Amino acid sequence: MKGYAPRHRNRQTSIMKPADHDPTFEQIRQKVEAGRRLSPEDGLWLYRPEVDLHAVGELADIVRQRKNGNRAYYNVNSHLNPTNVCIYRCGLCAFSCDPGDSGAYVMTDDEIVALGCKAADEGCTELHIVGGLHPDKTFDWYRSIIQMLHKSCAGLHLKAFTAAEIARFSELSGLSIRAVLETLIDDGLNSLPGGGAEIFSPNVREQICPLKVDAETWLEVHRTAHSLGLRSNATMLYGHVETLEDRIDHIVRLRELQDETAGFQAFIPLAFHPRDTALAAGHPHIEKSTGIENLRTVAVSRLMLDNFDHIKAYWISLGVGIAQAALAYGADDLDGTVGQEEIHHTAGSTSPEILTIETLRHLIEETGREPVERDTLYRPVKRDGADWWVVVEG
Ligand code: V47
Question: Which pLDDT does position 57 carry in this prediction?
Fold first, then answer.
């Protein structure tokens, strides 16, 4: 793989050539139709801005349809960010603070339980818990968050702690990653979110999140989680200083781990939001990625990640309109109602704070797809107001 320009230069190309008669496109189409795996070179080729985006989207839609039929998923969830104080202070992040900063906060136990109970009372099936790595907080503090919520909000699926947090808990406690995960499972942890992956290239990590765990550790945490029966998601943060090769390398490394464990449920491409980040301050050329780039990233991900069941178009990151369009470019999931999201909003996301169930269903129906509420494990959910139950199939 070589010879492709960095992302910010690629975006200038605008004349799209019809892909139909291009021999490379034809070869890729034949592979997709036959269910054969695409190579990294295929992925890079599909990323070329002069290759017709709509043709790439149509191919991705074949794979999506094969895996998920006419269904498009959403869930009813809420986020909980117990603290924004973080030892990492990654350049990519506008959310984190130093202790004593004017916006710094640490939620009290009562606030944590109140937020969890409110989410449960309102009918959420999932709480997505991630936050800063506070310099003074012990592993026991993070454990207590899971223990309290598990006890007070029975039935709420706790999708908590990125691989970066799990690795930090291992350092703090002196326990192995496996032992940390086993402890948290005993406390009530149900799955891992996909955050912290960013871009695996060490060169890029050095620029955007130098103190965060390296790719190998991120992958090892997920490998270990899968071996313990925990399901997880995977993300990729794109649209900053990475090259297209970096994106494809990231996707291929996830595909390799999924071949090994089959424990990932969904891949979530996250578009970088530059506002108020140190990274953007040091790289003034970085602009928010365009809708076209976002759709292409969804489509290429769907085509390359042949062993992932789900591609999520996270509306908070992509914007509601592009997330809806992404359902025709390979995505089969819009994530959830969300509420309480802070990480992307502090970095300039102009998406709403929350979407109602009715709005999510309407967005899906407008694309001609069947909205299916799911729980975190992609089991269909039936609901009567705030009451819900999982539909047992078969
Ligand atoms: O790890 C941080 C990203 C992630 C910025 O697993 C930013 O279901 C854009 O992982 N601009 C957290 N992105 C969010 C996340 C996630 C979201 C939705 C669903 C799931 C899931 C996981 O947000 C971080 C980082 O990659 N992020 N700052 C920013 N300025």
Answer: 98
